[in-house]
Amino acid sequence: MDYSVKVMDHFSNPRNMGSIENSDGIGEVGNAKCGDIMKIFLKVEEDRIVDVKFQTFGCGAAIASSSMATELIKGKTLKEAWELSNKAVAEALDGLPPIKMHCSMLAEEAIHEAINDYLRKKGLEPWTE
Amino acid sequence: MDNSATTPVRKEVVEEMLPYLTENFGNPSSIYDPGKISKHAIEKARKKVADAIGAEENEIYFTSGGTESDNWAVKGIAFANRHKGKHIITSSIEHHAILHACSWLEGQGFEVTYLPVDRYGMVSPEELENAIRDDTILITVMLANNEIGTIQPVEEIGKIAREKRIYFHTDAVQAIGHVPIDVKKMNLDLLSLSGHKFGGPKGCGALYIRKGTKIEALLHGGAQERKRRAGTENVPSIVGLGKAIELATGEIEETNKTLLEIRERLIDGLLKIPKTHLNGHPTQRLANNVNVTFEYIEGESLLLLLNAKGIFASTGSACNSTSLEPSHVLTACGVPHEIVHGSLRLSLGRMNTHEDVDRVLEVLPEIVQKLRNMSPLTPQEYRTF
Asked: Is a pLDDT exceeding 80 seen at residue B318?
């Protein structure tokens, strides 16, 4: 697979890998059958993501997308994090092979899931768009 | 450690080929002397291929490789015998060159039975016999599988096919140089082989067609290969294929002895990693094939990390393919969807040593652990952080 230097860097040295005990929101998307699972843990203070960690089962692109996506939303407000698109993740990685674009999609979806999990736990309405 | 993908051309083979890439460039169809030199070289190579599999010289046809041989066998038999019937029997773990040719034939009005395999990837001769119909015209079952190395009971299948007077083809691409082959003893009507899998050049293979077999041509044109396969012969590669098959079959016992030792050490070492399973048959397998599944991790990541350590291998994970479908072979063997993506194939060759095994066994457990630590599927007891 032809990956960019940046993809290989984030794959080989993933940032924010692991889990958060007593996290405020967890998002898990994908399934083992299709070969990709992404799980994102959020620590939120005053609507801001103060810490984020991920666990990913998947290919190089899936791991690199998780690493990059967590970097991009760390320190951001929930609103800003919600607006992170899969395209932005792929661009930040200097591109993904076309067949691997769904991996960046998974990152966007996992972040949305985690934010909504947080909102639900707070008794708030989950966001839809 | 990916010798089932391809092998380097052997030095002796290159030497034998060189004159036909330089001074002896004559077209074998030309009647003048340089043409005759090329013609003669092809016939010498044909004899070597025939000797290697117990066939007659005029039963060997050179092709562009395994894929052409498989396509020719399946489509050529189907179209030449369609007045007799439209039914073909194959297995669900064949190479795509067979499976995709078969599914194309289904679109042309033929019917195909894809036999299931057991958990070791073995076809049952009884099930095969039961699948035979009055209109069955071809049985094609591979000799040894390219992913899991399982060696099929080809001799038994051949006996059944011969009794029922049905043409029997085997894809022996992975078997040459590892499994002794006698087309007569195995009751084979057709057999595919490919040069680059055993130290020959890429882009050159052969199809054995038993004398008297009714088969259509795939390529039409000139009168080459007894009017059955048109196109100017790839003389240097054919010469190389001849030399390579002579060497590979001559050394079969010696090679297998060494490879078996290496294979068993590798398998034993790999199975020490917890939640690791061997794919394929424990004994009825190619001496050069190791295929395992590591739970909780994905194969492409594994290959990338191995690559970074200078170890080159392959996987049946969907993420490594362009189709996003996991290995049809492992799936047919019943490997659960949840773990099929964590498969690793190490296929050994004559260049591999015990030091290579040491290196793999040193590096692989760490890599598996690194990925398991990263995976949300890994239970706490298999994590180190």
From this structure: no
What is the rounded distance in angstroms from the CA atom of residue B205 to the CA atom of residue B220?
A: 18
The shortest CB-CB distance from B304 to any of A11, A17, A38 is to A11
For residue B319, the model assigns a pLDDT of 65
CA nearest B296: which of B340, B242, B361? B340
Model confidence at B121: pLDDT above 90: yes
Q: Please state, in angstroms and rounded to a whole number, the distance separating the CA atoms of residues B284 and B304.
A: 30
Same domain, B121 and B136: yes
Check if the beta carbon of residue B345 is closer than 8 Å to that of residue B291.
yes
Provide the 10 A C-beta neighbour count for residue B358.
12
Q: For Cα atoms B193, B195, B199, give the angle at the middle one, nearest 5 degrees.
A: 135
B224 within 8 A of B62, measured Cβ to Cβ? no
* 8 Å CB contact between B176 and B47: no
Looking at the predicted structure, is the pLDDT value of residue B169 above 80? yes
Q: Which helix (H) or strand (E) holds B47?
A: helix B33-53
Residues B47 and B58 both lie in one domain: yes
pTM (2 decimals)? Answer: 0.94
Architecture of the domain made up of A5-121: Alpha-Beta Complex (3.90)
CB contact under 8 A, A57 and B377: yes
* B301 contact residues in A (CB cutoff 8 A): 11, 58-60, 63
What SS3 state is found at B14?
helix
Mean pLDDT in residue range A42-64:
96
Residues B174, B286: contact at Cβ < 8 Å?
Answer: yes
- Mean pLDDT, residues B351-375: 97
Do the domain assignments include residue B300?
A: yes
Contacts of B380 in chain A (CB under 8 A): none
Interface test with chain A among B297, B301, B343, by most A beta carbons within 10 Å: B301
Q: Are residues B44 and B187 both part of a single domain? A: yes
How many Å separate Cα B56 from the centre of its chain? 22
Q: Which chain A residues are Cβ-neighbours of B322 within 8 angstroms?
A: 99
* pLDDT of amino acid B317: 75
Is A99 in contact with B338 (Cβ distance < 8 A)? no
